[in-house]
Design brief:
The complex is a heterodimer of chains A (326) and B (128). Chain A is mainly β. Chain A folds into two domains: 176 residues, no CATH class; 139 residues, no CATH class. Helices cover 2% and strands 56% of the residues of chain A. Chain A is elongated, with a radius of gyration of 26 Å. In chain B, helix 1 crosses helix 2, helix 1 runs parallel beside helix 3 and helix 3 runs antiparallel to helix 5. Chain B contains five helices and two strands, in the order αααααββ. Helices cover 60% and strands 5% of the residues of chain B. Classes of the chains: A mainly beta (326), B mainly alpha (128). Chains A and B meet through strand 11, strand 15, strand 16 and strand 17 of A and strand 1 and strand 2 of B.
């Protein structure tokens, strides 16, 4: 694969010598899978950061993989532009080739659930300056990534790059039978208490596995704070935001991950309290679910028990009906 | 036992005696203002109805009934009364729908209620 990058009249080559992935899977009846990707990114001098090569493999839970990635610099004699190339080879290099690192990586997939992928990893960076090793664990959201290693490289890259780095990312591969299906969400917000009731409705749609955000904006509620005879009314500005990701399952059900955030801010004062959470549920298409969102707790610096008691009496819920789009 | 706000407002509009407390509560009920406006519009519609048969209808009926115009006019008045009653019934249905809430403005009834558990899957602060 060849990726052309125009910069400063220098040609660079990032050689990624990758050993074929070694996979050791477990024997669970319905193994969950995730795609792990080790990626080398480079930051151009006075420019942006781009991936210059990667190694990825789809694993089942319990499976592991290894990779060897050599980043190599080719300094051209002429004033040709910066370029990078990525090549793979089966056997790992015996020693680093050039001043840029040779990364030897391994990873084991511990968990592959929706938006929750756990990986144990280890890497060894080999370079003329010496070897560095590290072992750790990462808990990644889907399409999230973790920076594993970082190497300043301006001198070694003849001014073309400022640095190179190693990243790990993860994603859930989509079932080919469902990957183009869409799921519609009829999502209601219901806020009720203190004699008032407010409803707002959002109608959303997302592809299989796609994260869809929602935001109901700011809505105001009058809270009765305190007890007689010192009772008073406080106007509370409240927000509810979040996102939904779901996948159609082979048995026809929908696996849903809903994340929500509930915030509150009194109009007359300057504090803001919020709380958040996520819930994974399985539903049949067309089923209606009500998710109660607990109130936020007071920030440490706020001593207003009556206000938070009134806030707790204001019930906020999301009512969700997922359906399949033909 | 509290009275239906619609019945209280309807009785008030009809000039029937209504307890002040019940009227005050009915006026605070959701949709009370719209209901009062609908009652008033219905009453005005009934009072202001001056529908009369057209000259063409008079001629046609005269042809059928000869000189017995008076009985034909009575028939038309009865027909007009039926129309007014039908309109009133439609108005009442509209009012009932207004009081019970438009189905499109209320969420569907859930089959399951799911609770977040603070400290387990619900946490203070912003998501990381």
């Amino acid at each position: 694969m060849r990726i052309g990058m125009i910069r400063n009249g220098v040609a660079l080559a990032a050689l990624m010598a990758t050993a074929g992935g070694r996979v050791v899977g477990d024997d669970s009846a319905v193994p969950r899978k995730a795609k792990l990707e080790f990626r080398v990114v480079a930051t151009w001098s006075k420019g942006a950061t781009h991936p210059i090569g990667s190694f990825s493999e789809q694993l089942e839970e319990g499976g592991s993989t290894t990779a060897n990635m050599q980043v190599r610099v080719d300094t051209p004699a002429d004033a040709s532009p910066c370029q990078s190339s990525v090549t793979g080879s089966v056997s790992p290099p015996a020693a680093p080739d050039g001043p840029l690192p040779l990364w030897q990586t391994e990873a084991t997939l511990r968990r592959a659930e929706m938006d929750d992928i756990q990986v144990d990893y280890a890497w060894r960076r080999r370079s003329p300056a010496g070897d560095v090793t590290h072992r750790g664990s990462a808990r990644l959201s889907e399409d999230g990534h973790a920076l594993l290693d970082f190497v300043p490289a301006s001198e070694a890259s003849s001014g073309c790059w400022d640095n190179v780095a190693l990243e790990l990312s993860a994603s859930i591969p989509e079932d080919s039978a469902f990957k183009d299906r869409r799921i519609a969400y009829d999502l209601w917000l219901v806020s009720e208490g203190h004699g008032n009731r407010l409803t707002r409705r959002l109608q959303l749609m997302g592809k299989q596995g796609e994260k869809v955000a929602f935001d109901y904006g700011t809505f105001r509620s009058k809270l009765t704070v305190g007890s007689r005879p010192n009772e008073r009314t406080s106007v509370m500005e409240m927000t509810t935001t979040g996102n939904i990701r779901s996948r159609i399952q082979p048995d026809g059900s929908i696996e849903i991950l809903l994340a929500a955030n509930r915030g509150a801010h009194p109009r007359e004062r300057d504090w803001y309290a919020e709380a958040h959470g996520s819930k994974k549920v399985s539903a049949t298409p067309g089923e209606t679910l009500r998710l109660e969102l607990p109130p936020p707790a007071p920030p440490a610096s706020v001593k207003e028990p009556d206000t938070f008691k009134a806030l707790a009496e204001q019930h906020v819920a999301l009512i969700l009906t997922p359906t399949l789009v033909d | 036992m509290s009275q239906d706000p619609l019945e209280v407002l309807s009785a008030f509009m009809d000039g029937e005696p209504v307890a002040p407390d019940a009227l005050a509560a009915a006026l605070l009920a959701p949709g009370a203002r719209e209901a009062l406006l609908d009652f008033a519009a219905l009453r005005a519609g009934l009072a202001g109805d001056d529908a009369r048969p057209s000259p063409a209808l008079h001629r046609a009926m005269s042809g059928i009934l000869g000189r017995r115009a008076q009985p034909a006019w009575r028939v038309m008045r009865r027909a007009a009364a039926v129309v007014v009653l039908a309109l009133a019934a439609l108005g009442a249905i509209s009012l009932e729908r207004r009081f019970r809430g438009n189905p499109a403005e209320e969420p569907p009834r859930p089959s399951r209620v799911i609770q977040f558990t603070p400290g387990v899957d619900w946490h203070e602060g912003a998501p990381r």
